[in-house]
Design brief:
Layout lengths: L20 H9 L4 E5 L3 E2 L39 H5 L3 H7 L2 E4 L6 E6 L2 H10 L4 E4 L4 E6 L5 E5 L2 E4 L5 E2 L13 H6 L30 H16 L5 H16 L7 H13 L4 H15 L2
Antiparallel strand pairs: 1-2, 1-3, 3-9, 4-6, 4-8, 5-6, 7-8
Helix pairs in contact: 6-7, 6-8, 7-9
Length: about 300
């Protein structure tokens, strides 16, 4: 009787993660928060549970809401370095549809100066210190060590991507990464309207101290303003709320004694605008804080 033929299966090579998942895992291991991007360099949209801000997130996927969505539907705010999350459902399905890898520069501790054309590159070479450079389809990414507020169109062909933004990963680049210069930070500070050179005119009660704290020393006010600027600058999320709470704290201490000058208020507004707040947002937050305190 013929013995049945036994077919022995030879183990094949272990299946490796495909691009761009492999790139994402490599970046995550280097502490770079990643996210998958669709065609057109766009992040994946909200899932049905988070659509139309049903989860409580802010518009345009700026921040995740109080939901605990495990997907990739909050753009830069969903970026992660957790390899288990990156390689597991529902992220795994997104990577199969992704065409490239995005990352959150602010989460990685860097700022990307996105130069879109030859004129922008020439300007950067004449104006900015050299740093790590990555070629793009139309121009270059100049990457600096340090974070700041993101802002598009700071000048023709130049965008800044850092906090609350994402950038496309295009390779390691060349050159040594240098510290974020003040010249780049200054680009994101929105200039006050010429028609409104003073952000907000503070009504100082007559005879209230001529700019000095009657209940504390002037150094106390100076220290308080500096701490307020630092608190706003350190905000990595919920910037609107942080600005309002900071304004409220300053006014609760110094709003009635007459020590606040327009120069002090301008410093607070400048700090808020450096985080991406508009002049209108600053003015509204200041007005709301005064109203809350009955000033």
């Amino acid at each position: 009787m013929t013995q049945p033929t036994t077919i022995r299966r030879v183990p094949g090579p272990q299946r490796q993660p495909a691009e761009p998942l492999r790139t994402a895992l490599t970046l995550a291991a280097a502490a770079v928060p990643v996210l998958p991007l669709q065609a057109g360099k766009m992040p994946f949209g909200n899932c049905h549970q988070c659509a139309h801000n049903a989860c409580g997130g802010r518009p345009n996927m700026k921040t995740p809401g109080p939901c605990h969505c495990s997907g990739v539907c909050h753009a830069w705010a969903a970026a992660t370095t957790d390899p288990t999350v990156i390689a597991s459902p529902p992220w795994a399905a997104a990577w199969r549809r992704a065409v490239c890898v995005g990352y959150h520069p602010g989460g990685a501790g860097v700022t990307v100066v996105d130069l879109d054309d030859a004129d922008a590159i020439d300007w950067a070479r004449e104006t900015l210190p050299a740093t790590r450079t990555v070629p793009t389809t139309r121009g270059e990414h100049w990457i600096y060590r340090g974070t700041m507020a993101s802002r598009n169109a700071v000048r023709p062909g130049v965008d800044i991507k850092s906090a609350m933004a994402y950038a496309r990963h295009l390779g390691p680049g060349t050159g040594t990464m240098t510290a974020l210069p003040d010249a780049v930070r200054a680009l994101a500070v929105k200039k006050p309207s010429p028609a409104r050179p003073v952000p907000y005119a503070v009504a100082v009660p007559a005879g209230a101290g001529n700019g000095e704290c009657p209940h504390r020393t002037p150094a106390y006010l100076a220290r308080g303003i500096a701490m307020a600027e630092q608190r706003i600058a350190a905000a990595s999320s919920a910037v609107h709320a942080t600005v309002y709470r900071t304004f409220l704290a300053v006014l609760s201490r110094h709003g009635r004694c007459g020590c606040l000058s327009n120069a002090h208020i301008a410093r607070l507004f400048t700090a808020a605008q450096a985080k991406g707040e508009t002049l209108r947002h600053c003015t509204d937050a200041w007005t709301n804080a005064r109203t809350t305190l009955g000033l």
